[in-house]
Design a protein that fits this description.
Layout (H helix, E strand, L loop, with lengths): L23 H7 L1 H7 L4 H15 L9 H7 L1 H8 L6 H7 L13 H7 L5 H7 L4 H9 L12 H5 L11 H8 L16 H7 L1 H8 L6 H7 L14 H7 L1 H8 L6 H9 L12 H5 L2 H8 L6 H7 L8 H6 L1 H20 L3 E2 L7 E7 L3 H14 L4 E8 L12 E2 L2 E5 L4 H10 L6 E5 L3 E3 L3 H11 L3 E10 L4 E4 L1 E3 L5 E3 L15 E2 L7 E5 H7 L12 H11 L3 E12 L11 H14 L1 H5 L9 H4 L8 E6 L11 H13 L3 E6 L7 H7 L5 E2 L5 H10 L6 E5 L1 H13 L8 E5 L5 H10 L8 H8 L8 E4 L2 H9 L5 E3 L19 E4 L8 H17 L9 E4 L9 H4 L4 E5 L5 H6 L2 E4 L9 H8 L4 E4 H7 L8 E3 L4 H13 L1 H18 L2 H12 L3
Parallel strand pairs: 1-4, 2-3, 2-6, 3-5, 8-14, 15-16, 15-18, 16-17, 18-19, 19-20, 20-21, 22-23, 22-25, 23-24, 25-26, 26-27
Antiparallel strand pairs: 6-13, 7-14, 8-9, 8-13, 10-11, 12-14
Helix pairs in contact: 1-3, 4-5, 12-13, 22-23, 31-45, 38-43
Protein name: Glycosyl transferase
GO molecular function, one term: transferase activity
Keywords: Transferase
Length: about 1000
């Protein structure tokens, strides 16, 4: 028996697994007792029995569909089967439910789709799949993809159950589901069968009687789901009692129980799963966040379960392990040595990109490891100068093993300083790298340092993030105090802390890795011999680089592991340090007079060499990634423009970010300090720890002024002299009022009342920012005269494809929640406008929906339209804009100016928008864009067709919008406005 109306092949191939067929072999094994009693044998007889008697017995036709569970899970279907509308649950699933219902308790179609959003109906159909389950069984299962919170392929395969050749983990599991296989087999983090059976002993009795296949089967199939907790960390009673917004949805059957809501939504919102589990606080831990964003665990709750809620700070342990880690590092160098001696490192060159100076006094194995690391790190031509400072080991004849070295030899140990100065005479490269022989370079260290010097001509030297063998920082740039003492910034901290991961101008960087412009180095005469044989020589050199008008920059993309004190004894150098500090202090009196007194509370300010830059604390809802849209792109532009204006910017989120480290690194200028490991609860302590540091606090979005008001008042003494700026981003009261009216709701308050409430904390601001003149006038009318207008930054495209080279319609925007304007506009457009395009535009003209989609947003009604293609977030929007002919902005209620409208215009794609957006942007309808009323779906559809088909009209709008962007939204104007707001001369 087969659901013939759904049968199709996979691009010409035969399916390995088909959920729509009757499996006689499995059926005979599954229901063997009944079948043997009735004497039914043979495939035909089994199928006939199933067809005639199976539905009444709630038999399943194959292991991939569970009839009994299906009817329990969907009572409406069970009622329809009882009335004879469907032969069985399986019949319903094959003919109607396959696109909206789940066939088995170990598969969830919504979960699977949210992990793989490209699996839309049109794409599935094109590939020959009938639904998401079809794809999972035949592709996802073999690729170890996850189809449910309650089934993890790796966990199942670790169970030790008999393997079935040729089947994925899920297929094996459902075929192996038998009581005798064990009740307590754990299949995921989210359900603990052992705890479950201990907590609910009556379930074990029901399992022993054969009523259920496993503890998980009982949990997902029982008729009173809110009576059972899945593990020790979630409580149905607690979650239901504190989340009143969920109770109604559970009672009405939208969620099977409270745990389903928690897994779908609550875990992402960091709601408490039980009285004793504070998921929000737990997720503040940097290690937890790192491991979740890296993908080690699917979310904070799974991490909590895996670690039983215990977190260990192993920084102290790492400090204590340094002696052992150094020993291991030394041993690894010895282990590498025979391998390196049996191959030839080659540093021959014609015209070197840089010169490298390495001073070695013995430590042959370490020196060879450092050279091997250097060669592997950079493929370009390098001149490597090794100074043999009186070595008595293999360094004496290092040329035997390394080709192309320039070697300078001394009969005795002359030390680092004099050895480097002697080597400087041989340097031929435009940049000179001082590199210790007890270092190992991390990927791209040389290339990143060279690129920094090539691209920023005012930088004289670049230093590295130095990491000791125990994995903790040696320094992230170094500080000079007024008394001439020095310290490595963030020593003993983790290398991934935010403070260590942005580029900044510093007093100096250690000579273990210091790359300097060779002409400047020659002008300065190398190291000052007054510091011979060592200590303070690189500090003195860096200060002389500053005095020559150049920057010394710490670059965290240049990462170096440093053995530290591998070439000398720290204790034996103590007296030399004291002597040279006195020399240093006398030589740099003028520079030192500008430095801070040596005090730990001054570290943050002292970490910069430049003290004349404006320091800005920029606070947003979230880290403002460009892909988030909804005003975050504008915030990202503001941060970039502040840095372009010469500011030191700290970006601080109200809500801790959940994105990956890769997203964080790629999203912001490398000179932005991005506090990815903190959020609002830590803000007060953060501000107090940096008392007097910031010149301005820029608060993005009016609602954040509400959140921050009590914090700023509590920190008032730490903010003396700090200018508070509130960027409204968009005045929202008119938008909220319009939304209620559109939904047929009667607003309880007038727009004016809503505005008074919205503006209630703007009194804190010395300056207020509006996104356009319309919002500025509203603010003025409510008594705020300190308003500046800062719109959107866009660079008009100098070239984009013409009308003939473009096709399809485009919507690009972020969808953060079900109640957002973008989700509303798409619902209106797909329901009211898209149908009006049928028969007027070719069927193969698609409507692309592109942009960030929160996992909580349900776009199912949209993606079921065959004309719609949902791409989700893309890394580069330019190819998307360039391939589409018309951009649609069907916004029905909005505040400010949607960034996407300006961005589309900057890419040269003409826009059809609602009259609301036309008014907000201030452009001329019919010239700069086409507009239609939100109450006129037909007019909106007509505008799309006109713009899509009329090449002359398209080209006119295209030219006009680019002219608008090139005159109204330039980088130069944007930076100038920000300088005026921040009072930068």
């Amino acid at each position: 028996m087969k659901c013939q109306d759904l049968s199709m092949s996979l691009s010409g191939d035969i399916k390995k697994i088909d959920w729509s067929v009757f499996d006689a072999t499995w059926y005979a094994e599954k229901y063997g007792d009944v079948l043997k009693f009735l004497g039914i044998e043979g495939a035909e007889a089994l199928e006939e029995f199933y067809r005639e008697k199976g539905p009444a017995l709630r038999h399943s036709p194959n292991p991939y569909f569970d009839e009994d569970w299906y009817l329990r899970r969907y009572p409406a279907v069970a009622d329809a089967v009882g009335k004879g509308e469907w032969q069985s649950g399986f019949d319903h699933y094959c003919r109607a439910g396959f696109s909206s219902h789940n066939p088995h308790w170990l598969f969830d179609r919504e979960f699977y789709f949210k992990q793989h959003a490209t699996l839309q109906p049109a794409a599935l159909e094109e590939a020959g799949f009938r639904n998401l389950y079809d794809h999972y069984l035949n592709v996802g299962d073999e690729q170890f993809l996850t189809g449910s919170w309650f089934f993890n392929a790796t966990a199942y395969l670790k169970s030790g159950l008999a393997r079935i050749e040729g089947l994925g983990a899920f297929a094996q599991c459902v075929r192996n589901l038998k009581p005798e296989q064990g009740y307590g087999q754990r299949l995921s983090w989210y359900f603990d069968p052992e705890w479950y059976l201990e907590t609910y002993p009556h379930v074990r009795k029901e399992l022993d009687s054969g009523r259920w296949l496993s503890a998980l089967h009982h949990y997902l199939s029982n008729s009173t789901p809110t009576d059972y907790n899945p593990n020790a960390y979630f409580s149905e009673e607690f979650y239901g009692s504190v989340n009143h917004d969920v109770s109604g949805a559970v009672e009405s059957g939208n969620f099977r129980n409270f745990y389903e809501h928690f897994l779908r939504y609550g875990v992402h919102e960091l709601r408490k799963p039980s009285a004793n589990v504070d998921l929000e606080s737990y997720y503040r831990n940097a290690v937890v966040q790192k491991e979740v964003t890296r993908g080690d665990f699917p979310d904070a709750f799974a991490h909590y379960i895996a670690h039983n809620g215990r977190l260990e700070d192993d920084v102290e342990g790492l400090k204590e392990s340094e002696a052992l880690s150094k020993k291991l590092y030394h041993e690894m160098c010895q282990i590498r040595l025979p391998v390196l001696l049996n191959q030839t490192l080659d540093f021959t060159y014609d015209v070197p990109d840089l010169s490298v100076i390495i001073v070695a006094h013995n430590l042959f194995a370490m020196t060879m490891s450092a050279l091997a690391s250097l060669r592997a790190n950079y493929n370009g031509q390098m001149q490597v100068i090794v100074v043999d400072s009186g070595s008595t080991d293999g360094v004496r004849h290092i040329e035997r093993y390394v080709r192309g070295l320039d070697v300078v030899r001394f009969p005795g140990n002359v030390g680092f300083l004099l050895g480097c100065n002697a080597a400087l005479e041989k340097v031929r490269g435009p940049f000179t790298l001082y590199l210790n022989n007890d270092t190992e370079l991390m990927p791209e260290a040389i290339g990143n340092a060279v690129a920094r010097l090539r691209h920023e001509i005012k930088i004289g030297a670049v230093g590295a993030k130095l990491i000791r063998t125990n994995g903790l920082l040696q320094e992230a740039g170094s500080i000079v105090w007024r008394d001439g003492s020095v310290c490595g910034y963030l020593r003993d901290q983790r290398p991934d802390v935010p403070e260590a991961n942005f580029v900044r101008s510093v007093d100096y960087c250690a000579g273990a890795f210091l790359m300097v412009r060779t002409p400047l180095l020659r002008t300065l005469g190398g190291f000052d011999t007054d510091y011979a044989p060592a200590y303070f020589e690189e500090t003195d050199l860096c200060l002389r680089i500053h005095e020559a008008g150049f920057d010394v920059v710490y670059d965290p993309s240049v990462v170096v592991v440093h053995y530290e004190y591998g070439t000398s004894s720290f204790m034996s150098g103590a007296s030399m340090i004291a002597r040279n500090q006195d020399v240093f202090r006398r030589k740099h009196t003028a520079y030192l007079r500008q430095k801070s007194l040596n005090n730990p509370r001054m570290l943050t300010k002292a970490r910069f060499s430049k003290q004349d830059q404006k320091r800005v604390l920029f606070i947003e809802d979230r880290l403002p990634y460009r892909f988030l849209g909804s005003g975050f792109t504008r915030s990202n532009d503001i941060v970039r423009s502040m840095i372009a204006a010469g500011c030191q910017v700290t970006v601080y989120p109200v809500f801790r970010p959940t994105e990956s480290q890769e997203d964080i690194c790629m999203a912001f200028p490398d000179r932005a300090e991005v506090m990815w490991d903190r959020e609002l609860p830590e803000l007060e302590d953060f501000i107090k720890s940096r008392a007097g540091y910031y010149d301005a606090i820029w608060i993005a979005r009016t609602h954040n002024a509400d959140r921050l008001a009590p914090v700023l008042m509590d920190c008032a003494d730490a903010l003396t002299g700090t200018m508070v700026i509130i960027d409204t981003e968009a005045v929202s009261a008119p938008r909220e009022h319009s939304k209620m009216e559109l939904r047929g709701q009667t607003p309880e308050k007038t727009v004016d009342d809503l505005l008074k409430h919205e503006f209630r904390h703007l009194f804190m601001a010395e300056k207020i920012i509006a996104v356009n003149s319309k919002d500025s006038k509203i603010l003025n009318s409510h008594g705020f005269s300190n308003v500046h207008v800062l719109g959107h930054l866009q660079n008009a495209s100098t070239w984009s494809p013409g009308w003939e080279d473009r096709r399809n319609l485009l919507f690009l925007g972020a969808m953060h929640d079900q109640d957002s304007p973008n989700v509303d506009s798409l619902a209106w457009f797909s329901g009211e406008v898209l149908p009006l395009l049928d028969g007027r535009l070719p069927e193969d003209v698609k409507f692309t929906v592109c942009g960030y989609i929160n996992p909580r947003v349900d776009l199912t009604p949209l993606i079921n339209n065959p004309r719609v293609v949902v791409t989700g977030r893309v890394e580069d929007v330019t190819p998307v804009y360039n391939s589409h002919r018309v951009f649609v902005a069907p916004t029905r209620y909005a505040g400010g100016i949607p960034y996407k409208l300006h961005e589309a215009a900057a890419h040269g794609i003409p826009v059809v928008a609602t009259d609301i957006l036309c008014e907000q942007v201030g452009w001329e309808p019919g010239e700069d864009m086409l507009c239609a009323s939100i109450s006129d779906a037909q007019g909106f559809a007509d505008a799309i067709v006109r713009l899509y088909e009329d090449k002359q009209l398209w080209e006119k709008v295209h030219a006009h919008e680019l002219k608008r962007i090139s005159t109204e939204n330039t980088q130069e104007n944007y930076v100038k406005t920000i300088k005026d707001i921040l009072e930068i001369l």
